[in-house]
């Protein structure tokens, strides 16, 4: 019992520090501090899933997940972001890829202006190019995917992502099933979540699970991907996303 209590305390400390670092980074426009904060919150969440009895404390996990989502929603609302998140595959400026939320639905994107130090992209010729860069959001989960895959996901295709994401998320209790259907210019993704989720929030402020799957798809296909809709169905959360072309198109 004492061991479990210590883990809960450690989780709480990680989450509080994560929130503080994220807010500090947000106010200072510092990507490094923001990413550290997000990582802290995520690690705090994950600690809840590793009890000595291998029991996932779902109520606590869902509470933390909600705080995580609310923090990002605050960023998005305060910046009046209207666009839907774009998942960028790794390239020279962003070696781990990234998630970019455009200021407007009618957007333009110049990948040459992004780098790992970018948070708010405002120094651009057109307002259409403005937005918020979240960095490789869900990156810790992607690292788990690649550990399970025993290699990089670059160029592996959508079926590899379906297999590895499904296995890892199922083992962590975060999703029961992941299904990916690829068409010429789009994806249909079904995630049967293992915890309570609010899919309508994921269009602009994605949760780590959805973000990790979409960012892995961008990595595996070399395509920028924009998620167009998240809908709750009887069989899970259905995500519809479109391909935006490779990195070269947006440089």
From TrEMBL:
Keywords: Membrane, Transmembrane, Transmembrane helix. The lineage of its organism: Archaea, Methanobacteriati, Methanobacteriota, Thermococci, Thermococcales. Residues 13-235 form the DUF7982 domain. It comes from the Archaea. The chain crosses the membrane at residues 9-27, 33-50. InterPro entries: DUF7982. Pfam families: DUF7982 (PF25939). This is DUF7982 domain-containing protein.
